[in-house]
Amino acid sequence: MKFLRLILVVSLLCLAGLFAFACGDDDEDDGADGTPSDGTPSDGGDLQTDFGVTDTEITLGMTLAQSGNPSASAYAVIASAIEATFAKYNAEDNGACNRQINFIVEDDQYDPAQALERATKLAEQDEVVAFVGNLGTPAVSGQVDYINDPNGDGDTSDGVPHLYLSTGASKWNDPEQWPWTIGYIPDYVLEGNILAQAVNEQYPDSTAAILYQNDDFGEDGRQGFTELYEGEIVAEQSYEAGATEITSQLANIRDADPDIVFAYSLPLTTASVFRYMQANNWNPQVVWSYVNPSSLLGAVLGGEEGEAAGYAQIAGVISTNYILDPISDTDNPAITEHLRVMSEYGGPDPNQLAVYGHTLADLVVETLNVACENGDMTRAGVLAAAESLQGFRSDLLLEGITVNLSSDDHAALEALQPVTVAEDGSLEPLGELVDFENEDGGEGEDSGAGEGEEGQ
User: Fold this and answer.
1) Model-level pTM?
2) Is 168 helix (H, G, I), strand (E, B) or coil?
3) DSSP 245
4) Which of 7, 27, 53, 269 is the most buried (most CB within 10 A)?
5) pLDDT digits over 204-228, tens only?
């Protein structure tokens, strides 16, 4: 009888909410990041959803070139690295918000019209909850207005999260015009500033010639360099994004006899610069953007002779960096883990683009988990989660770099380190990390960055 009375008391306590442990409500089962292990919001309420989120799955989309423009399609390995990282999260961490991540990649061929068509398909047919990592300044320019206002009525409330663009064009950090769009990689104008300062320090009183892609990507880099370069610019040549031949531009630059060639160009165009230099026994100091990973250029230029032959050609190049280097950071535990993930889940061979893709996937999963904890995985809820991130960093970013976003700041990564390419293709620091998020943004010599915001 006493036993039966005990059962009755315990039952009543459970119903009254006074005996949480007996009712199975143990907070110690929550995930380490604050997201409840059963995939429900932290307050125990219902999870709000609208598009792309079911009880078991979260659907995300990405557009980038997998064919078409050869330079742009070289970045397709980024999607493979993101896919492998998501596969790791699905298998080992129960995805995000205890749902499997379904990642759909569409080939936009680096073409604005194709990018718009692919984005429309992902938003309206696949009903993705968000775009992540869309790549290429021209391509993203073709889709950005649609993604922010799908029905074109001037009301952006029906937009789709356009998160963590793989383009550093300065125009993306404009929440007033494009409230659903958030850039990821560092601003090209500010990179141009940093490269100019590195050249000023390493080669004072030098002359420079500029080769740049004739679009927002190239124009941003050119602007940043010319703002702070203290030497004389003796030639400027542009090329179109789809150009396969730039011999005449390089001949004009060579005739100007510059000490420095500032090549703000995509990888295969940049490779053409080195082939021309080698063929003409011409050896100016080359400066390029971080969009030219040394691992990719080494493979392209080395060809059948191997990457080492390619690295020998690019040794000494001045550039910038913001991620760990799979060549020089092989002993770093984060690179060890990255290599494991890529190997076990079908990712690319070791290269800097794969590391980049892994960092982006880490950021996406963090965003989804924050939205889940907030109880709102609608499109608007995912955007709000992204805008709330402060101090997040993937272990594969350089020490000191964190993601800090808000409704007024849509630029995720705002720090770069000047580097030089070593003979083995690794990246060696050429100066301190420049955190332009915390700079005044002026154009003075000590500012670390010029005016501008965030293209490829």
Assistant:
1) 0.87
2) coil
3) -
4) 53
5) 999 999 999 999 999 999 999 999 9
